[in-house]
Amino acid sequence: MQEAELRRAANTAGRELMVLRPGNADEINVAFATLVERKISALLVGADALFNNHRREIIILAARHAMAAVYPWREFPSEGGLLSYGPNLPDAYYQAGLYVGRILKGEKPADLPVEQPSKFELVINLKTARAIDLTVPPGLIARADEVIE
Q1: Contact between residue 85 and residue 70 where contact means Cβ atoms under 8 Å apart
Q2: 68 close to 132: Cβ distance less than 8 angstroms
Q3: What residue ranges do the domains of the chain occupy?
Q4: Could you tell me which CATH number the domain at 2-87+120-148 has?
Q5: Pairing of strands 68-71, 120-125
Q6: Is residue 118 classed as helix, strand or coil in its secondary structure?
Q7: Separation CA 146–CA 74 (nearest Å)
Q8: Tens of pLDDT along 9-37?
Q9: How far is the C-alpha of 5 from the C-alpha of 30, rounded, in Å?
């Protein structure tokens, strides 16, 4: 579903969307080699356990190749990535805890509504932006929940 939406957005912007799905750490390096070969300058990293487990490597590769990378969680820019936009994980864990409490009090899981994250956060690492010679628009900086200098 997200891929279809991304393709529509890319088409609207007159851009090509290239989707790579590495399945292990070695394939991450292969994916970056493909991106470099195709002269790709921007990267959207999906919310995936593999990417989270290898976030340091991904951050280093993106910086090495001066790719403007957007990540799903704040841990990425906190560790040197450019930017993240995604659900606030502590809030999501809190909501999950409320659900567990409801179940422990006797409610049936099947009767509980499906919840979507309601709190999202934008984190920008300006140090990384400067390192890859990228100017972040002031309006985006103003909207950020956290700006890392």
Answers
A1: yes
A2: yes
A3: 2-87+120-148
A4: 3.40.50.2300
A5: unpaired
A6: coil
A7: 9
A8: 989 999 888 899 999 999 999 999 999 99
A9: 25
Tell me the whole-structure pTM to 2 decimals: 0.84
The pLDDT value recorded for residue 39 is 92
Residues 110 and 95: their CA atoms lie apart, in Å, by 17
Q: What is the number of alpha carbons within 13 Å of residue 33 lying toward its C-beta?
A: 6
Residue 30 CB neighbours (<10 A): 12
Q: Would you state the structure tokens that stand for residue 111, as one six-digit string? A: 């009767």
What DSSP character marks residue 78? H
**Token pair recorded at residue 76:** 């990425």
In whole angstroms, give the CA distance from residue 52 to residue 83.
14
Per-residue pLDDT tens digits for 103-112: 999 999 999 9
Question: Which are the contacts of 68, defined by CB distance < 8 A and separation ≥ 6?
Answer: 41, 42, 43, 82, 83, 132, 134
Contact (CB, 8 A) for 42 and 6: no
With beta carbons less than 8 A apart as the criterion, state whether 126 and 147 touch. Answer: yes
Output the six-digit token pair for 134.
């990228």
